[in-house]
Imidazolonepropionase
Amino acid sequence: METLIKNINIINPYKEVEYNCSILIKDDIIAEISNSKIKTKDNVKVIDGQDNFLLPGFIDCHTHILAKGFHKEENMSNPLSIHFYNAVPHSKETIFAGVTSIRDCGSADLGVKMAQERGLFLAPKMTISITPLMCTGGHFDLFMPSGFDMEIIYPGFPKGRCDGVDEVLKKTREVKRAGADFIKVMASGGVLTTNSSPDYPQFNIEELRTIANEAGIHGKKVSAHCHSLQGIKNCVDAGFDSIEHGTFIDRNTSRKMAENGTILVPTILVHDFLYRNGFPKWDNFASEKTAKLKEIVKVHKENIAIAYEEGVKILFGTDSGVIPHGYNLEELSNLVDIGMSPSEAIASGTIEAAKFINQNDKIGSVETGKVADLIITSQNPLDDIKSLANRDNILTVFQDGIIVKN
């Protein structure tokens, strides 16, 4: 099957806009890009780009595609099957927002990834962590004072709780066995878990090093949910590949991250969105969560700006699933606010993200030989990065050369 897109302007990160181009897609691959007429078969499907703008599909480096707010009350009352069916609308909202690939930081299992690959439902391509590792009493330890354990668990989805060197070693192996592409670790307290403060580190340095070493043996990256400054330091010293959130990062730690090549995925959007919109009235822990957010929102963007100044590589991620899906590209404006150029912000969610998930030979830019995961937008985001946050401006989305939104 051949598809020809004509009269289109191409935006690639770090490059000048290429105007009035034609692109030929054969099956799922970009076969040719030209400023002149491209020879095609008689039955080629022709799409008039109408002088709009073509970009690579975005890669959200921090999502939870099955999640719907992580409300414990819903875990308790809903049948397990609802947990999986939630992925159907969430995935559609994500793709329609212009995100064609995601890095799921906890919730999607191997079966969900396989279902996407087999075309059983429309969804972004997935790099998965299965379930995060958490310590007893730490962030996402959902064992409640009532004695009920609200952590979702089923065959093929191991329990994440572990303590001590021997247990974290075994749990890392269990998560790998379950099909994880990378290992996710809760290395500090968080907002959504009661009796857990974002200020404090979790897991000790020996535990963290054990996780990182075991993952590295198998070629797996390790990512840390971490707000705490000491927690960030511990993870950097342990050899982690990325810090997610990084709320209380400081200048000295930023310099060390830059030297080590440790990635930062700040997810600025999630805290601001939750603080503005709050939690459901029936959430019994809403006031505690809001109090934590007040502290985080106050300093998060300022500290991420410092990290950017010190040369830390920052990637696009949203924590969607904690907040509703489909608002993903709003995060790009936050990245521009901390000092990135629009081109850098776009790169953080395309070519740089593709490098991090080891997919840059396939996706992340509009080039011949790469997979046709593409979006067409009605405005030039280099002139107005906020235009990408308006889903109405995302006119067309291609995944594997197939139009999935038009």
